[in-house]
Here is the input.
Amino acid sequence: MNFSYLSNSGKISIEISEEDFIKIKKLNKIIYSCNTGGYSPTNHFKNVIKICELHDYTFIIFTDKHITSIEKENQIVFSFDAPNPRYAAKIFKILPHEFFINSEISLWIDSNVEINQTVFNNLNNFLESDYDIELFLHDKRKNIIDEASECKKMAKDNALIIDSQISKYMSKYVNLKEFGLYQGRILLRKNTNEIQKFSIFWLNEVLFNSIRDQLSLPIAIKESKVNLSLNNHEDVHNFFKVLVHNKYDMYSNEKSLKNIFINIKTKIIFKLVKFKETYFDSR
Here is the structure.
């Protein structure tokens, strides 16, 4: 099965076997993620899979390379061609309805996120509610404008692209600062018509503006008028643990030699990823 999209950088193509597509389109309650290039840790997913099975959920990870530590039935190996390698994960993240066609509910977690048992009470409550989507407020910044400044400071995307996007938003929305800012690493959604419209709008913003999806997420929420359930950023710790590499807790204040080493290693890997993206963009 081929899925094709257009971006301001060129064409994106994702290929999944027909057998795998038939498998995932039958799933009803899903927790899923994506890991490309082996960038994030995966050992914690063994525990995620066990917890999901206890609560009648299925865990799926999309990956461009088979992960030996995870059962084959829990991973979808795909191939892709894209001007920017990050586009592949964005498509799986933003468009669950294109892959989990018959799902009732899906929970996206970034590949460095681990779930706790407590999350399933929240999932069940959400399923019985009138909400379409549940998000967490951002833990460090308050609005899109602040996030754009941070993205430029950390060179997370082209500054000209970010400036153009924010300028467009500011000319259209006089109260842009009041839109808030959400964490994009955790997305809880129902498979409703409203969510499908929201997802398509959001992906278009990502494909034709900055690839930093947190910049356009509040706009997609505003424009699509989905029924949003919003949690404080502190509440994320009740359900999830966010890791970097080698099960390093990114919220830990511990200044151990191990954590310092992992922090340096993470920065090096980030620089390598940016180098790869520059190479792809120049092709």
Summary: The longest strand covers residues 10-16.
